[in-house]
Write a structure and sequence with these properties.
single chain, alpha/beta, Rossmann fold, eight-stranded mixed β-sheet, about 35% helix, binds 1,4-dihydronicotinamide adenine dinucleotide, Strombine dehydrogenase, NAD(P)-bd_dom_sf, Opine_DH
């Protein structure tokens, strides 16, 4: 029997709890720290089924009816005998879970960030300290599904399941008796096929949202004349050549970071860190009409149809940018600043990232960069290595 603890109370956590509970040989438990979610979820399940509807193209939907054995707000209620912990929440919520779990975590456990998002392993090492070496870490690039919760604590839905999901594994000492990737596969069932390769830092550097969203925001709004617009502009399909150029330069810097790390630590495999244009051609092969270059990949990506810039409406019905949206509030401290922090330790110059961060921190009223140094007062609230006093490449790579 594998005992799986799913952390979170949102779309992903609902679906994961139901899918895991319905797998043979798996006991699913849930820890949700946010507000009164644990209480509400427990109450909702007491006199209702817990249902996950799984849709898949060309097939009739299937309904899974299986409940997690316990949902709690306290780690002490759910941690006994746990083999694998799956964090399935936005990155900004990871710290709370790691702090709550730390006193009850044991050597040999498996800890999964699904998605891990940029800097997952830095948060784990910074918060767990020495214990991090004794835990096997898995970080995945995304959620296994496109999914949504329909009724809290009762019903959720898988809209689509990814064919495969890429991640990376760092084995702890002691390693668990069962391979961690196989253990997670048992918890999630057959699909998606989990593929782990390369170093965890590769997943951090391929946290593409962390530079995609801020670069497009910068490209569009840094030259805005301040006059409210007639409508919210298209975010992706309306991208211009300047914004695509900014994004391409930032992505060049990310690839340069990976190359510099591999040059300095040849045992570290970051070969899956690619330019974002290759990422687009790979991930959206069926959605892009014209894959010629980065600009055309974004402009003609049908998966993005209709998605607009985050805007607020003025009293006379016009539109101005909303800088409080996650494209800056999350993707700067949990994305671009993380990349910038790694660049510092790898000795890579990042003029394009610096332009975007400097503009964004002004919009957010935060301070990350001071000149070209990551010493701003808001660094501790980010996930860059410097926030956790991880001072060199060996510490961020888990080699020290
Ligand atoms: P979600 O938006 O449903 O997560 C909300 C949950 O996060 C809340 O129910 C609560 O448990 C927790 N939370 C919210 N605010 C909190 C706070 N201040 N403190 C502590 N916990 C808090 O997230 P979802 O949809 O489950 O996605 C998880 C991650 O996966 C996100 O990073 C999302 O971008 C990513 N993702 C989601 C996909 C989807 O289809 N839902 C697809 C691909 C990626």
């Amino acid at each position: 029997m594998v005992v799986a603890l799913i952390c979170g109370g949102g779309n992903g956590a609902h679906v994961c709890a139901g899918i895991a509970a319905s797998q043979p040989g798996v006991e699913a438990r849930v820890l949700t720290l946010f507000a009164d979610e644990a209480e509400r979820w427990t109450k909702a399940m007491a006199c209702n089924d817990f249902v996950v509807t799984v849709n898949s193209k060309g097939k009739a939907p299937t309904e899974l009816k299986a409940k997690p054995t316990v949902v709690s707000k306290k780690a002490a209620d759910v941690m006994s005998g746990v083999d694998i912990i799956v964090l399935m929440v936005p990155a900004f919520a990871h710290t709370g879970y790691l702090e709550e779990l730390k006193p009850l975590m044991k050597p040999g456990m498996v800890l999964v960030g699904c998605p891990g998002q940029a800097g997952f392993e830095f948060a784990v090492r910074g918060i767990l300290g020495d214990l991090a070496r004794h835990v096997s870490l898995l970080s995945f690039e995304s959620l296994p599904w496109a999914c949504r919760m329909l009724e809290f604590g009762k019903k959720s839905e898988v809209l689509a399941t990814k064919g495969s999901l890429t991640g990376a594994l760092q084995l702890g000492d002691p390693a668990p008796a069962v391979d961690p990737t196989a253990m997670l596969q048992q918890v999630l069932g057959e699909a998606p096929k989990l593929i782990t390769k390369g170093h965890l830092l590769g997943i951090t550097l391929m946290g593409t949202n962390g530079y995609l969203h801020p670069s497009i925001m910068f490209g569009f709004w840094s030259h805005w004349d301040g006059k409210p617009l007639e409508q919210s502009p298209l975010f992706y399909n309306g991208v211009d050549r300047f914004s695509a150029g900014v994004l391409s330069s930032v992505s060049d810097e990310v690839v340069a970071i990976a190359k510099a790390v591999m040059q300095q630590r040849p045992q570290v495999d970051l070969n899956n860190v690619t330019h974002i244009v290759d990422w687009y051609r790979r991930c959206y092969a069926n959605d892009i009409t014209d894959p010629t270059d980065l600009y055309s990949c974004i402009q003609t990506n049908n998966a993005y149809n209709g998605l607009t810039h985050p805007c607020e409406q003025t009293s006379n019905g016009r539109f101005v940018p909303n800088y409080r949206y996650r494209y800056l509030t999350e993707d700067i401290p949990f994305g671009l600043v993380v990349m910038r922090g790694i660049a510092t330790l790898a000795g890579v110059a990042t003029p394009s990232m610096d332009k975007v961060i400097t503009w964004a921190q002004g919009c957010l009223g935060k301070e990350y960069l001071v000149g070209d140094q990551l010493t701003g007062k808001d660094i501790p609230a980010t996930r860059c290595p410097q926030a956790y006093n991880l001072p060199c490449l060996d510490t961020i790579l888990g080699l020290a």
